[in-house]
Amino acid sequence: MLASLISTVTLAAIGASAIQVTYPSKRDTWTSSGAQTVEWDWVSTDATSFAMVLVNQDSSFLADTTSLNENVTTSTGSTTVTFPDGDFPVGTSFQVNFIRDADRDDSILAQSAMFNITQSDVVATTATTATTAATSATSATRATSATSAIAPLTLSGSASASAAAASASADASGGTTTNIPAGNSGASALTSSSALLLAVVGVVGAALL
Asked: What is the largest CA-CA distance in the chain?
């Protein structure tokens, strides 16, 4: 009876002195990018330092135990950690283990509750911005191609010949006309037609005199 009581008291004392991970808890969530916080309670009889690892029983989220910090001072009560390969994996049921020996995963001093890691808003925003920029660039390229495909309107060969004939007729009859440079736009074609009409009127007028 006495031995049983002593054993119970001893176990209670050990439990009271063990490091307790207070953050993250099962209600907390980490994000995939940047530094994440880990907090714990401790007493003077706890180990003075420990290593910290991230684990997940589901290998589809995390294939192997990942070291977050190999030498944490217990008395600090909190620290921040980053994932060694960049961003934390996204998923559910992660745990942070405090271990006595960095080379032995089974020397656990404390263990957090299971928590989730979600996609960081920064990553999502960056992806959206990149997609928007790509879409804008594609639209600009299409607009440039469409503009380049529109051929400039030029005066046809027959219109240029008619304008030249009208000018010659006007000179022969003593009339005047406007010289129209070849290769002008649609407005020049209209001016050429007007000059031709004036030339014809000039010729008719000369014949009646």
From this structure: 150
Contacts (Cβ under 8 Å, ≥6 apart) of 119: 31, 32, 90
pLDDT for residue 104:
83
Taking the alpha carbons at both ends of the chain, their separation in whole angstroms is 150
CATH class of 19-121: mainly beta
Structure tokens, 135: 């879409």
Angle between helix 186-208 and helix 157-172 axes, rounded to 10 deg: 30
Residue spans per domain, the chain: 19-121, 157-208
Over residues 70-90, the pLDDT tens digits come to 999 999 999 999 999 899 999
pLDDT digit string (tens) for 128-157? 555 565 666 666 666 566 555 554 444 444
Residue 103 confidence class, pLDDT cut points 50, 70, 90: confident
Q: Are strands 91-101 and 104-111 parallel, antiparallel or unpaired?
A: antiparallel
List strand residue ranges (DSSP E) for 2-121, in order. 20-23, 29-31, 36-41, 49-56, 66-73, 78-81, 91-101, 104-111, 115-118
Closest CA to 115 of 94, 90, 89: 94
